[in-house]
Design a protein that fits this description.
The protein is mainly α and 308 residues long. The protein has one domain: ABC transporter involved in vitamin B12 uptake, BtuC, CATH 1.10.3470. A two-stranded antiparallel ribbon has the order 1-4. It has a two-stranded antiparallel sheet with strand order 2-3. Helix 5 packs antiparallel against helix 8. It starts with a helix and ends in a 14-residue tail after the last helix.
Length: 308
């Protein structure tokens, strides 16, 4: 009985670990949708670029002989956030701003084109093979009998929990307390009226893309260090899962994106543990369909009210 409980706790820890990073990526989707009502399908590639930059930064620090782990992690995180934020800003300027105000299908196609472009750009520059790196943060704690199954909690998992909580807290405070956060809420409520009241809506929308890209870079750095491998397709897979989490929690709701990411991560972990890894995506998407059947706006989403 004890082994069953410990095994369940282990899968719960694994699910929360993955779900936390899904939530960080999903926030980028939900913020952009909440502000301009469109989906940034190039967001997964921004996450992928952030992961590559983090790996490059870690490799560079290793070549310089730096062994102080907090410094290595900080440099990798800041480098990843800076480069990814720049790409997020460029995507908004190139793929969205010139097309804003027209048919909503056109920016969607433009974003898909940008996604393919970024994926091809990285493939040409870095190759399509997997890039592996030895774990920078090893070790952890084990709980349970020595002669039976033990629940393990690694240092990197604890780091993921801590960084995710800090990122979510900072974002929540930024949206609720800062001047730019109030402007974001005003633009999300009524873009045209916010523009009439003197809010620089272009700046607000660009900031939304930058913030979403920075959070995706945080997730990319954490997951890259957790798995120790990256390739050009990780953005497509993680982006699809994060978009699913955003829809599950309620697209346009930041708390919904957080909740959706955690639920999706736990669902995948439990399915892989108790059934088969091959069924984890089937169960996750079946859960999404089931929830949307009974609550079309997602768990914490609100019905869109047409403004007249």
């Amino acid at each position: 009985m004890l082994e069953v409980i410990l095994y369940f706790i282990q899968q719960l820890i694994n699910g929360i670990t993955i779900g936390s990073t899904y939530a960080l990526i999903a926030i980028g989707y939900t913020m952009v949708y909440g502000i301009i009502g469109m989906i940034n399908f190039a967001h997964g590639e921004v996450y992928m670029i952030g992961t590559y930059v983090a790996f490059m930064a870690i490799s560079g620090m290793a070549m310089l002989g730096v062994e102080f782990l907090p410094l290595i992690f900080l440099v990798a995180l800041l480098s990843s956030m800076l480069v990814s934020s720049s790409f997020g800003w460029a995507i908004e300027r190139i793929a969205y701003r010139p097309l804003r105000g027209g048919n909503r299908l056109i920016p969607l196609i433009s974003a898909i084109g940008m996604s393919i472009f970024l994926q091809s750009y990285v493939r040409l520059g870095q190759g399509s093979r997997d890039i592996a790196m030895s774990s920078q943060i090893s070790g952890g704690w084990s709980f349970g009998p020595e002669d039976g199954f033990q629940t393990s909690l690694s240092y990197i998992q604890v780091l993921i929990f801590i960084v995710t909580v800090i990122s979510m807290t900072v974002l929540t405070l930024f949206i609720s307390r800062s001047r730019m956060g109030r402007a974001c809420r005003a633009v999300a409520q009524d873009l045209k009226m916010a523009n009439l009241l003197g809010i620089d809506t272009n700046r607000v929308i660009a900031s939304t893309f930058v913030i979403g890209a920075a959070l995706a870079a945080v997730a990319g750095t954490l997951l890259g260090m957790y798995y120790g491998v990256v390739n050009v397709m990780v953005g497509f897979i993680a982006g699809l899962k994060a978009f699913t989490a955003a829809v599950l929690g309620g697209i346009g709701s930041i708390p919904g994106a957080m909740l959706g990411g955690i639920i999706l991560g736990i669902t995948e972990s439990m399915t892989a543990a108790y059934f088969s890894t091959e069924y984890k995506d089937v169960v996750s998407f079946a859960l999404l369909v089931l929830i949307l059947l009974f609550k079309p706006t997602g768990l914490l989403g609100k019905p869109e009210v047409e403004k007249i």
